[in-house]
């Protein structure tokens, strides 16, 4: 199947101040913000979305907490939400897939509406022509897969999910660590192999469901890869450009 | 003269929360944050600098205000400082050269120490071997040049400044507008011409003194160009890694 070219830009009509609960990791936050800007149809600074980014990378590791070997990141994420509340934001996005394990707890801790990254991905899959029953491949951290963050929520939209083999998943985790260490180029080959493995399982699309991955594996001009970071940025802009 | 290769990375020892008064423009803010991360020596998320970014692009145009044809951006910048104060930051950087016209007024409006971009550039020039008496070329907005933001402050460090011809300056402003409109590649040729003109005036270094310019004119591997955005990011990291 063939997907349309990169996402179309969005012109903001309601400049609601966006909050970003970030720092997980910091480079993924920078990547999210750059994509938010690039997806905005604007001729001047003033036509861009006002955004407050709390990039607080001291938040404990999310995968370690889910696997059971680390501190909970929830208290630090709640503190970051307080920062965003005081900053007058009206919506919050979290450019970290694994952090969505705590989505309901975070939503319960604030009056601010949180935008869910899997809902953003589901909207992008639908816009690209995928239909209920299609199989979607996941490239994600051990934590995101173990917690079934995508599997459960995409099931609501009718999609089935496939994940790499145990060996393939170990190479994906190594690739993510390389990106976090500032060496994205060292991660690309392993990720291409993992994508090929998922394609063999019949996946119509493969989601880069960890915000570090698009830094190592460009999705432009790909008719298979879907960048969850880009889908989240698009959902934030659409939220600021409601249909009349 | 030959400059050393790109800036060396800095390992943070004092994770002071940094505030960024941004959105002028938003892409320059994203570029600053990406450079801050890339210049950090870190093996994990947690070793990066905690940062809160108020990217509020509705701040009125800085150059228009200096030239006398636009609203003052000062009230909106003061409001952004309030956001950063409430976010618990300990230092503030402003990745917009022209906004430094209001530096003293902003410093008078907050107890938070502000880091001055021209001081960061002066430190980088000195680290690259420039000495008092050397001539430094400026590529900047009309507002930054007219307000003599660089000329006055670099004079304190003993440097003389050169600026493009009136014709060259018009092409620089057109290039900056192209970047703000999301078309950095359309700006590169005009900027290369402006750099050549400044070299003919005897400049030992040419400063990209507008945060939009590095997006159109890469400074890597150049022994002449100095990216003020990168210099500011480095100063923020050095501030979080004080000598023992």
From TrEMBL, chains A, B:
Listed SUPFAM superfamilies: Aspartate/glutamate racemase
One Gene Ontology MF term: amino-acid racemase activity
Record key words, sorted: Isomerase
Family: Belongs to the aspartate/glutamate racemases family.
PANTHER family: ASPARTATE-GLUTAMATE RACEMASE FAMILY, GLUTAMATE RACEMASE
UniProt-recorded name of the protein: Aspartate racemase
Organism classification: Bacteria, Pseudomonadati, Pseudomonadota, Alphaproteobacteria, Caulobacterales
């Amino acid at each position: 199947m063939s997907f349309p070219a990169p996402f179309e830009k969005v012109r903001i009509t309601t400049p609601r101040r966006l909050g970003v609960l970030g720092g997980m990791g910091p480079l993924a936050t920078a990547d999210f913000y750059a994509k938010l800007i690039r997806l905005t149809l604007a001729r001047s600074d003033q036509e861009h979305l006002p955004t407050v980014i709390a990039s607080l990378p001291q938040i404990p590791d999310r995968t370690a907490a889910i696997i059971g070997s680390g501190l909970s990141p929830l208290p630090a994420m709640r503190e970051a939400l307080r920062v965003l509340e005081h900053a007058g934001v009206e919506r919050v996005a979290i450019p970290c897939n694994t952090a969505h394990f705590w989505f309901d707890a975070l939503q319960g801790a604030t009056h601010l509406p949180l935008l869910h990254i899997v809902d953003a991905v589901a909207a992008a899959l639908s816009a690209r022509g995928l239909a209920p029953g299609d199989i979607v491949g996941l490239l994600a951290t051990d934590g995101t897969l173990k917690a079934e963050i995508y599997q459960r929520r995409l099931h609501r939209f009718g999609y089935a999910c496939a994940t790499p083999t145990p060996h393939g998943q170990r190479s994906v985790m190594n690739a993510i660590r390389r990106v976090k260490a500032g060496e994205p180029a060292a991660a690309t080959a392993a990720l291409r192999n993992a994508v090929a493995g998922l394609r063999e399982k019949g996946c119509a699309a493969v989601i880069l469901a960890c915000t570090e991955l698009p830094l190592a594996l460009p999705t432009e001009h790909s008719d298979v890869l879907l960048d969850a970071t880009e889908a989240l940025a698009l959902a934030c802009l659409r939220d600021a450009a409601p249909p009349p």
